[in-house]
Structures are given as C-alpha cells and as structure tokens.
Design goal:
- With 125 residues, the protein is an alpha+beta fold.
- The protein has one domain: Arc Repressor Mutant, subunit A (Orthogonal Bundle).
- It has three helices and six strands; from the N terminus they run βββαβααββ.
- It has a three-stranded antiparallel β-sheet. Strands 4-6-5 form a three-stranded antiparallel β-sheet.
- The protein is extended and about 65 Å long.
- The relative contact order is 0.15.
Length: 125
C-alpha cells in the first residue's frame, strides 16, 4: 500500500510502498467473537516521487481511462490495483487530470479537453 510521506531532508513529497505484518487475535465471549490486530512490523518496500508514481500509474491506466470516467471509479482503481490509500487518491487524481489534460466540471466525472477547440469537451460540438 502506498502512503504519502514528506522527506525531512529535501522537503519533497514521496510515496512509500509499505507492507504491514500483523497478528490476528480472535476472542470468544459466549456466542460472540471479536478480532484484534497487533502490528508486528512495517517494511518500506519502495519509495517513489509523485512524478514516478503518476508515470507508473498512467502506463497501466491508458486503456482504462476514458472520457467521462467517474472520479469515484478512478479512486477505486487506484486503491485496489495500485495500493494507493484513500487519503492519497484525491491528490493523485488531480495530477492525473493535469497530465492527461482533463477537467472535472461537476466534480464527479473527468473529461478530456478537446484539442480542436479550447474549453470544449471531447464529443461536444
């Protein structure tokens, strides 16, 4: 899972891929059961800059992103397929939007800007 971290040395934002190791404890009280988790360790498996992470994501999304894709769907894809935490999705989606020359007039769907006419959406004429 990728989490956003701030480098204390250079001040840039980085994304760290972490792996959590946890123990699951099951407790029984009569008919009821409850789970408790204890973190054993956390390993950082990779560290990427925002630009590197966006570039890696865009390589995989080129077949998935389409005109009118819902922001929630894209956030779900980032969480499920790329291990990006929900808190980081909004910022990454904004960066994807800029990289792909898209905009989001209703804050729900992303549209490609039509290169033929400034300010027009693809498919609208």
């Amino acid at each position: 899972m990728f989490i956003k971290a701030h480098c204390p040395v250079c001040g840039t934002d980085l994304y760290q891929n972490i792996r959590l190791h946890a123990l699951e404890h099951l407790h029984f009280e009569g008919d009821k059961q409850a789970y408790r988790y204890a973190i054993e360790s956390i390993d950082v498996t990779d560290t990427l800059t925002e630009e590197e992470l966006i570039r890696d994501i865009l390589k995989g999304l080129h077949r998935i992103i389409h005109d009118g894709i819902e922001v929630e769907v894209l956030a779900g894809i980032l969480e499920e397929n790329y291990g990006v935490t929900g808190a980081c999705c909004r910022g990454l989606i904004e960066m994807i939007q800029v990289e792909l020359d898209m905009y989001c007039p209703d804050m729900k769907r992303l549209y490609f800007v039509d290169p033929e006419g400034p300010g027009e959406l693809c498919g609208e004429k």
